[in-house]
Amino acid sequence: MRRTTEDGGFVEPRSRPWIWLVYVLLFGASVPWYLPAGPARLWFGLPHWVVISLVASLGVAVFTAFVIARYWSAPDDETYGDDGH
């Protein structure tokens, strides 16, 4: 599904501020600097900060796949020559 502006131009994902906000939040969560100092609790046999980081990294990957599938527009094949350039 191609997203266009009123003048027919394409809207790229990078021009959507909410996408940047989600990336900042996910990357901020992937580095658990906000956790209090002290002994690490174990979750699933790993320190809790490792589990938090892995889940946030998975969130970045899933969100990136969502943005590509939903908002990224590729030019039509006929825009290019027969050799794809």
Which bin fits the share of residues in helices?
40-55%
How can the largest sheet be summarized?
Answer: 2 strands, antiparallel
Q: In one word, what is the shape? A: elongated
Task: List how many beta strands DSSP finds.
Answer: 2
* Strand arrangement across the biggest beta sheet: 1-2
Structural class: mainly alpha
Low-confidence stretches: none
User: Can you give the mean pLDDT?
Assistant: 78
Q: Could you state the order of secondary-structure elements as H and E?
A: HEEH
DSSP strand (E) fraction? under 5%
The termini sit apart by 22 Å
Rg, Å, rounded: 19 Å
Number of helices: 2
The number of domains is: 1
What are the key terms here?
elongated; 2 strands; 45% helix; mainly alpha; 85 residues
Write the layout of secondary structure elements.
Elements: H1 17-30, E1 42-43, E2 46-47, H2 48-71
What do you see in this structure?
- With 85 residues, the protein is mostly helical.
- It has one domain (13-79).
- It has two helices and two strands; from the N terminus they run αββα.
- A hairpin with a 2-residue loop joins β1 (42-43) and β2.
- α1 (17-30) packs antiparallel against α2.
